[in-house]
């Protein structure tokens, strides 16, 4: 049988090891893996020339359609994602109306008409009706992953409705009964942070460090402990999103040892940037905030010892930030095109992070956590042919031309994706994504 595409002469990296050879693809799926001489003939053969071939990245955390039209973001940002080796993106998405059912139908249709890569959804609990609707949402949409937001005061600049412990507890009780159900929590103690913020804002400070000091690390640690306590009481599976504190992975590992189902996600910015970096100003405001060097190193400990479960970019393309007032500035940065390069440079090259561990946090674990296994997250026969070819030695400067705020511009990184294959289609090569690929992505959160 002739394959559609063969990639050979590659160092193929999986979560559980590696081999030299390649992959054969037909009808969007992997049909063979192994040494070069066992791979079939193909309509197109790509010689990897010894470079690294990994499963495509699953980015389980991004926000699209927040300040730009959803259809536009699904074009520009999924193309940016493909250039970074991302082949599936899961969107945290909020709806202020009573029901998520029409909202899902609309967003799924718009996404499939525009996206370059596959995508899916997690839903934000933004009103009490959403909690009661969880069983219907799961039946209608296949989405089993729901998010509660702490750390946002009611008058926050992006209109997020902050959660209460009651919301979390009520949602956990329902999701604990759902196979694969998971509650995702943004952990920061809202009340303590708002109290300290008043004190610091009154001093007139406008530096990035002031924002971090207004919501100190212990606010996140306290809420992580509280959410683990509630997860233990209810038996619900808990995912701690965009964890910025070194204690996060430690607390989660301790809880897992007691049988609590809890996993930790962190983001590339918390592993590469601090709030006291001299070249950063209020435009680098992120929620939760960038922290200091101690927290950064604590998160790297978790990356290296296995207690950080997954990586997400928390990519959010806001309108150009004004840079006028720290306290009302929109929080958020963009990272789709550079997450993999940042991890190769600072993790693999500088800290000896094994490539198989990188595959684990970027592909294998997110697939298993959010119901995409055994379709995505591995290079194996029968899986979707989602792949990224990486040149570990290529050195290139970060150049940002798209939407949103980039906090890595001008950095020279070592290790870059050079080719991305999404469900069997080569969607990124020679430094670009072709227009023909818009609208080929498919929604992966669908009814069972």
Share of helical residues: 25-40%
Using the CA coordinates, give the radius of gyration. 21 Å
Q: How many DSSP H or I helices?
A: 13
Mean pLDDT: 97
DSSP strand (E) fraction?
15-25%
Regions with little confidence, pLDDT below 50 for 5+ residues: none
What separation lies between the terminal Cα atoms?
32 Å
Shape: globular
Structural account:
With 448 residues, the protein is α/β, with parallel strands linked by helices. The chain is built from 13 helices and 16 strands. The strands form 2 sheets. Strands 1, 2, 3, 4, 5, 14, 15 and 16 form an 8-stranded mixed sheet that branches. An 8-stranded parallel sheet has the order 6-7-8-9-10-11-12-13. Helix 2 links the parallel strand 7 and strand 8. The longest helix is centred in the middle third of the chain and has 18 residues.
């Amino acid at each position: 049988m002739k394959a559609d595409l063969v990639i050979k002469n590659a160092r193929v990296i999986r979560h559980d090891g590696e081999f030299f050879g390649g992959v054969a693809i037909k009808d969007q799926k992997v049909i063979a893996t192994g040494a070069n001489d066992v791979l079939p003939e193909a309509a197109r053969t790509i010689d990897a020339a010894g470079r690294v071939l990994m499963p495509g990245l699953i980015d389980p955390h991004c926000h699209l359609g927040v300040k730009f039209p959803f259809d536009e973001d699904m074009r520009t940002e999924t193309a940016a994602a493909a250039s970074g080796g991302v082949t599936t993106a899961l969107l945290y998405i909020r709806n202020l109306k009573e029901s998520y059912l029409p909202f899902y139908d609309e967003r799924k249709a718009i996404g499939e008409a525009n996206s370059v890569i596959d995508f899916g959804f997690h839903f934000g609990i933004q009103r009490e009706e959403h909690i009661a609707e969880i069983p219907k949402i799961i039946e209608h949409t296949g989405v089993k992953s729901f998010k509660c937001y702490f750390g946002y005061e009611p008058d926050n600049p992006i209109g997020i409705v902050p959660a209460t412990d009651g919301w979390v507890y009520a949602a956990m009780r329902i999701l604990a009964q759902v196979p694969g159900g998971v509650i995702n929590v943004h952990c920061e103690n809202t009340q303590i942070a708002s109290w300290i913020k008043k004190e610091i804002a009154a001093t007139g400070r406008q530096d990035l460090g002031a924002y971090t000091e207004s919501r100190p690390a212990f606010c996140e640690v306290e809420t992580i402990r509280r959410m683990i306590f509630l997860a233990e009481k209810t038996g619900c599976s808990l995912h701690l999103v965009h964890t910025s504190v070194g204690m996060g992975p430690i607390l989660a590992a301790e809880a897992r040892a007691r049988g609590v189902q809890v996993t930790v996600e962190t983001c590339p910015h918390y592993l590469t940037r601090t709030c006291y970096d001299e070249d950063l100003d209020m435009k680098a405001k992120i929620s939760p905030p960038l922290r200091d060097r101690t927290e950064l190193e604590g998160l790297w400990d978790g990356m290296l010892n296995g207690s950080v479960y997954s990586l997400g970019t928390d990519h959010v393309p806001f309108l150009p930030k004004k840079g006028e007032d720290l306290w009302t500035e929109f929080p958020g940065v963009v990272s789709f095109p550079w997450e993999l390069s940042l991890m190769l440079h600072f993790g693999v090259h500088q800290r000896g992070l094994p490539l198989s561990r990188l595959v684990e946090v970027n592909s294998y674990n997110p697939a298993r956590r959010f119901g995409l296994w055994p379709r995505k997250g591995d290079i194996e026969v029968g899986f979707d042919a989602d792949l990224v070819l990486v040149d570990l030695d290529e050195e290139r400067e970060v150049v940002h031309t798209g939407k949103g705020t980039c906090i890595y511009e001008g950095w020279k990184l070592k290790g870059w994706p050079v080719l991305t294959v999404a469900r069997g289609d080569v969607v990124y090569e020679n430094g670009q994504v072709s227009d023909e690929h818009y609208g080929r992505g498919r929604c992966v959160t669908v009814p069972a």
